[in-house]
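Posting for a labmate who doesn't have an account.
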Amino acid sequence: MVSPVAIGKACAEPAALPLPPVDDVQVLTLRTLRSPWRETICRLHGLSAVSIISCMADVDVNKVVRQHLEMEGFFAGFTIRGKAASAPMAGPAVGQSPTANSSPESPSRPAPSGAPTPPAHDAGPRVAAAPGPAHSVEEAGRELAAVAAEVGQCRQCELGSTRKNPVPGEGHPRARIMFVGEAPGADEDTQGRPFVGRAGQLLDKIIAACGLKREEVFIGNILKCRPPENRDPRPEEIIHCLPYLQRQIEAIQPDILVALGGHAAKTLLNTVRPIGQLRGQFHEYHTGLGRPPVKLMATFHPAYLLRNYSEQNRRYVWEDMKKVLTELGLPIPERNKG
């Protein structure tokens, strides 16, 4: 592993950074790195933009994603970010219009040390992230809004041209639970919102069964644009979209990620194991060097339940969600304990 000192030195002295030869997959991975690191690495290896683009061939998706995450995670700590603006967040839930009964803070959110405890609401348990030093709700909201704006302008792959609307995701900017699906479908493409079709309606019911509301969690996808005919995501599409999702996770700082379906689970966990083997237990999603892992629960996608409904599959999903609630210290609604 190349040390941070060597990386920093290489920016000033390119020849000082020893790197192994770059194969096609690594070159493909380099496309996702943020400047100036991509330019530095490419310069060291004598790579041009044309040579990078020419590497878009069929590759093993898991190898691609694994290398992408490893390299993105390694460089994440050395990316220079601009200072957050001081303007207040435009709305309480990213991707949604402000409503009269919504608030930027979630009622069950513990107050930071030394801060007064907000009055309790009578609408039942709420879900928001435990307070952390890195992001306030407003800062997280600004970062999510910035990601959404960039997704709206993104044309890094063909999906940017075939989509009707980008679907960056929506929900509470500091939600404790973040649901991640595979990709938008036809209804989502039309409305520009995640999980609004039949599968979304079932997800809403699952969230409600947990005693929660949709605006108290965050819902997104691996891909931010609909693949034509709802085909499976391609490796290069995943690579282009993953940095957006990673930034959303960093901003929200959820306590638990819930991966909906095999594609989302295998992408986030860098594994080829089927969803049947992944569900029902907590895994760790690593966000980058120096950051603690986020617990991840994989479960069946709502669309899978609609296609393959059975009492057993329904119970599997509910057992997974009960484990999530228990891990968060949230009550399991009485009517749904069985």
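Reply:
Got it, the structure tokens are right above this. The longest strand covers residues 294-299.
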